[in-house]
Amino acid sequence: MPIIEVRDLRKVYNGSVAALKGISFDVEEGEIFGFLGPNGAGKTTTVHILCTLITPTGGLAKVCGFDVVKEPDKVRRKIGFVPQDISVDDDLTARENLELHAKLYHMPRSLREKRIEEMLELVGLQERADSLVKTFSGGMRRRLEIAEGLLHSPEVLFLDEPTIGLDPASRMTIWEQLRELNKEGVTVFLTTHYMDEADRLCDRVAIIDLGEIRAIGRPSELKEEVGGDVLILKTNNPDKLLEKLLSLPFVNSATSQDGTLRITVKSGEKAIPLIFEEARSLGVNIEAVSLSKPTLDDVFVRHTGKSLRDEKIDMIERFKQYMLMKRRRR
Amino acid sequence: MLKEACYVCERELKHFIRMRVQIISSIVTPIVWLVFFGYSMNMMSSGLGGINILNVFIGGERSVFLYFLTSALNATPLQSLVIQNYLGISYLDFFYSGVIGVTVMFACVFSGLSIIWDKRFGFFNKLLVAPIPRLSIMLGKTMYATVRGLIQGVIILGFSFLIGARIRTGVVGVALALVFMLLLSLGFGAFSMSLGIKLADQEALFGIINMITLPLFISSGAFMPVDTMPGWLQVIAYGNPLTYLVDALRLCLLGGPYSALGLPFSLIDVAPRLMRDLIALSVFTGTFLIIGTLLFRGSVK
User: What CA–CA distance (Å, rounded) separates A212 from A195?
Assistant: First the structure.
């Protein structure tokens, strides 16, 4: 039985804005499942429905076998939630934040202290445990947020944009921690607009845009669908080689332009030596070769007709403004 | 439910303790009122032949002291005057209950801000994702408002005592005063929460609170007896919950006038009036607890 089950889930805001137009997917136990899409695609809406924060307009959503609308309290006991906007309490210390969380989840006192130490160690915040959170960097806050999400040993951890606005080193740390925890059996559901994050971290990815799931599968499979790796060859006799290449079974497509050949193949690493062999037998010289792998962005372009890259700046800008506002708070 | 509310309340109290500037300002402001205003009026009333000057200042027929004495004793102004001279109540004695009431109001009336902040910064969602009864969130925050109102009220009461204001009814009177403070704190806390649930930004809350606190404050009888106010203002005063708190505090702390006969200042004499105050405050607090609960239920699914 899948641990998250979503069928034809719909959400309409204010009677007119359709945020989700009927999405369906399953997440299996022990997976790292990613929702990849731009701002406003419906990622946060999905997470909020699954975390019982908002009620869907229609459709069905089950987490750990419990309906999120009918049995929200049972769902709440099973899940951890790391929201997009960092929401650990600035005016408490890291430890106090965790203590409050533990109490709200009815953890017995004996277990509480042990678990808090474990979590602080997991996210590498032991030394700063008794400092006020307002003195923390963005990465530290995010790590504390994750520690909180995990404190009560949830079966599923939901993370909404877990590495937004973080520097590369902090992102790597968080990825490692998520993998570590996934090994211990926690199912991870995350949303992201970073394709590298979806690619490197997730077992399976759903591409979502404008409230609809456009594609779903393993990152490697999705990329293969794009048409495979791209090889660029420079040669002294492109026409002769092109003709031969088009007859080879492993070549998906090949075009020639200004003496440069652009070839798509299933696996570039395997294709290169074979192409070289063919070229030698034809007596054609290959002067240069480059191999590029398709990214999830190519997948995204294929399914939605637009690129994710343009989105990034918007999101980071928004995050920075949020942090500024937060500092001005008191 | 109550346990979870206590956790929420504990967090708010930790915030309060860490906001040093806010603590200082919330205590210094009423102290300034008390010392600057209370003492200067005192000088006028006692130093210069007291009651007449005060009469002139207030512009009413009856003095400040007669206000509660006549009401409690149901005596003629002349009789009251005699007792007043014997008791020698100063303006400070009259005024400090009012300052306590106003302090309690200001301590609670901004507590709805915390809901707005929590909503804006996502902490509210975190509370909602936790497996706790929804209402415990509002209850906890209202509890915090109540505790804070009580703490600040007690500090001002203690300070009044230190600078020479008198508590004439002893422990029972003070205990009763605390009950009244608690009741109104709860009411204003629930009122502020109701606003916090409905409003999206803190400026709107500040605007509304600032708009209503000044009239509440002036019409409450903290500075001058309600009886000496113009009729239209009296109407407002009797619709103002703070009026009943100030009145109740005054009665609780100063008691009835019978000590003139050598007995302790009695609360029994003023019991009917205290009962009226208690009912008025209970209605106010009950109404806003219900409104707050309904609004909160409606806003979280």
Answer: 18
